[in-house]
Amino acid sequence: MTPRFKQIDHIHVHVLDRATAEKWYADTLGLKRLTEFEQWATADGPLMIADDERAVCLSLFERPASDRHATIAFGVDAAEFIAWKEHLEKYLERPPKLEDHELSWSLYFKDPDGNPFEITSYDCGRLKHHLMS
Which residues of the chain have pLDDT under 70? Predict the structure, then answer.
């Protein structure tokens, strides 16, 4: 039998300038520095950031730009999806791409370093009514 996971602990994200990225992630996604891990934020180490509940935790590594990216997707309910859509439209240079996948709705956007993100909700009925009106 395969052992079980408790959760995804953190995701590595490569950025060109950690200080600039830290501000963007705080302002745009509400992810803040985890002070208990600051000693890791050396030249080669990560700057750990997370939301208040620590449901989402990213490790920002200062690295050269790369064309290899994995999309990081966050799950939300319908009300939060609508709130995120409105929030991102204010904070991003261009609005997030809205996509109806029939079984889910997604918002797609990138951070300033080109790392792709997605916010997804499976509450299609409520969202379709709101988004299509």
Answer: 3, 133
